[in-house]
Description:
The chain is mostly beta strands. The protein contains six helices and 36 strands. The longest helix has 9 residues, at 3-11.
Amino acid sequence: MNIKRSLVLLFSSYGCFLFGQEKVIDTVYVFDNQMNKVKLFHKVQTITPQDIEKNSTNLSELLRFQTPVYIKENGRGAVSSPSFRGTTAQQTAFVWNGININSNFLGQADVNNISFGGFDQLDVKAGGGSVIYGSGAIGGSIHLNNTLDFNKGFHASLFSEAASFGTFNNLLKGSYSNDKFSFKVSGNYSVSENDYEVEESQNYINRNGEYNNTNFNFSAAYKVAPHHQISWISEFFNGNQNYPVFFESQTKTKYETQNIRSLISWDWTQSKFSNSFKAAYTEENFQYFSDINKSYFSGGSGKNYIVKNDFNYFITPKWNFNLISEFQLNKAEGLKQSQLGDVSRNVGSFAALIRYFTTKDLRFESGIKKDFVEDISSPLLFSFSGKWNAASWYHVNLDFSRNFRYPSFNDLYWQPGGNLNLKPETSYQAEWGNQFKIADVKLSLTPYYIRVYDMIVWQQNGTPYYSATNISNVRSYGLEALLEYSKKIGRHNFQSSLGYSYTKSIDLEKDKQLMYVPLHKFFGNIDYKYDFLRLYVQGLFNGLTYTSSDAKKEASLDPYFVMNAGVSGTFLKNYTIGFKVNNIFDQVYYTMLSYPLPKRNYSVTLNINF
Length: 610
């Protein structure tokens, strides 16, 4: 197979297309048609559904134990935010099927308000990605992808979990497909009393910590012609979080949110080009109750109307051109006692990428992008990537990019404190990826450097209230390492991984390490499977973490080591029963000051495939 044919095979977002009169081969359709291209030039960690089930309580736990991302959680199940390579939560992009879903209000996503049952595949990409994925993709991006299969017939599955602290998770999925039509539906419900206790932390009780959320997903695709496909997906999420209080005498509060995401795509693929046109609608609604016993609340409603076109063309078998254009209308409305009025803005962008495949082992990608954000002067963005398979045992890639984040609605319009004169945050970054492979062992070493300018911070500037200001410049650098080993002998399967991240992130105004950015993090997984039996162990070490801007050690979070272990057995091919112990050594640990996470706890799972 020549280079052209092999690359068309990889780039086609919904199928494998051969030349001439050869038949179209049915395969998996991924709604984010850029992800396969991204993986050709960048290291992307893909977390499989089997790995997701190891940490099925919530997405925060999954990212904490299986990725280098630091997760700051105000108590289990409460407000949760990520830090990627020493950057802020606003500088991590959450991408749903190719659409950036960071909140227009806060500029970030609450990790615990994303259902683990709302996606089929989780991809974690470190490093900048604003040329393709837009505002906020500075430290990294987390991709929630859905897929559709063809020619698979009917399939259904039920996953159910009962865990400590009155926690129950249930996920039901069903799908049907033939050679032209594919349909999938899923529903997820999670609920927890979440009333854990940590006596060693001043007799802490997670009072008022209960939460519940419901998620429904519907998706379908139809091949209307040999080279044309129409696809659609919609997601509906409803979440309720009570915010923990330290004493019974305190007023109890809660937060409710309702999110809608819907996307329709028309994909046209020929031998030399492909085009994907998408129209999307996303909506976020939230209500904050300052007293759960009273009916009044403050809140907001945000709506986004998005159209996006992705054109991909092979000029020659070695040269590929990609043009991405997008337009968004963002609207937000403050409700009742909210300190935000009715606001809107138009956002447009054009990105062009050129890819050169010198040989099967050497390829380059260069991109440029210009955003047009109403009333905001946005920078010209660029990216360059090169990947060389230098030997069978050594691969290397280089990445340089300029990325940005434009101010959120709260940054601009919140009263008091919003600032209409804010500039967007910009960053320059570089990374050098090295991958070594000897027999069954893989080692990845990636040093990186990020320089962020005009970081937006909220602080008191001689006033009794906080206001948004461009003040901070930040330099982040570090190393990410991942050691992997896999071996199969007969019916024995063994897999293990050990990840390490060193993160130095300095506020250059104060010459101090940023808050909630640990210098050291280790995470590891060991998985053994024999016939119907599966055993796994997870470990996490988190180093000293500062919780104040002046990096005082007395106000820091102590280092900790947490280990989980689980066992499962599959019977009659379709029935799997599992048992898991979290925090085996009963460690007292925090990811957020004053809010300890649970000590030893347990869960039982049942997975049925139909």
